[in-house]
Amino acid sequence: MADFIFWVIWALIVASAALVAFGNNLIHSVFALMGTFLGVAGIYIFLNADFLAVTQIVVYVGGILVLLVFGIMLTNQISTAQISQSSVQKGLGLVVVLGVATIILTAVLPHDWVGSTLPMEFADTVTGIGNLLFTDYLILFEIASVLLLGALIGAATLARKEL
Amino acid sequence: MDHLSSYLVLSAILFSLGLYTVVTRRNAVAILMGVELILNAANINFVAFSKFVTHNLDGHLMSVFIIMLAAAEAAVALAIVLNLYNDRGHINVDEANALKQ
């Protein structure tokens, strides 16, 4: 049963990401992106990453997706035309992307990753992440807080009418 | 689901679709969506290797920081996109080829 659910989520991620990449309507793409984000949260649960699954839903679905919808609403005339989107150089792009995908898959799949036969079942990751965040990763944590403050001020400054 | 390769294939597909979105879309918001797909693919790899190979939480920490970076990047990029729209009346990146008109 768990196996079946895993492959359903797997297919959901691939299908919705394909709609993001190939869809003609921008609104359809942004809602398909929500399916991708929720599916990735499900994949995190299969990987015993409970904290990351919740963070994924809160930050991506609750934050970034809303920002993207706002971005679409503010940069299109919603009432006049349907929000279509066009692509350029589809053929060339497809060739390049298929080449990159082939390179990635031939690089990672045949390799025998050490320890890959014995997956680790984390019981609870929140305690471990909290401990690491305030010991080994303390400097990175502080830099991240400064970066978030900078991004907040920068976005507010940039979005003003008079620069 | 109990093998690393299923996660690696998923991540590779997600990365490729995100890359295709970034290189072919004209709309700046659609390109941002492609960037989010690529970051999600990287996150899946970090967490999968954390479970199957390294057996510690370092990959999870990297994913937390990537999610944080994605949020900051989306906020700043959308502010830039709004400025572009106010300036040009459209957000097609292939026509935005001058810093100032």
Tags for this model:
heterodimer, A: 163 residues, mainly alpha, Four Helix Bundle (Hemerythrin (Met), subunit A), 2 domains, 6 helices, B: 101 residues, Helix Hairpins
Provide an overview of this structure.
The complex is a heterodimer of chains A (163) and B (101). By secondary structure, chain A is an all-alpha fold. Chain A contains six helices and no strands. In chain A, helix 1 packs antiparallel against helix 2 and helix 2 runs antiparallel to helix 3. Chain A is globular, with a radius of gyration of 20 Å. Chain A starts with a helix and ends in a 5-residue tail after the last helix. The mean pLDDT of chain A is 87. Chain B is an all-alpha fold. Chain B has three helices and no strands. Chain B is elongated, with a radius of gyration of 17 Å. The model of chain B has no long low-confidence stretch (mean pLDDT 89). Chain B starts with a helix and ends in a 13-residue tail after the last helix. In chain B, helix 1 packs antiparallel against helix 2. At the A-B interface, helix 1, helix 2, helix 3, helix 4 and helix 5 of A face helix 1, helix 2 and helix 3 of B.
Secondary structure layout plus pairing:
The complex is a heterodimer of chains A (163) and B (101).
Chain A: H1 2-22, H2 26-46, H3 50-74, H4 90-108, H5 125-133, H6 138-158
Chain B: H1 4-24, H2 28-54, H3 58-88
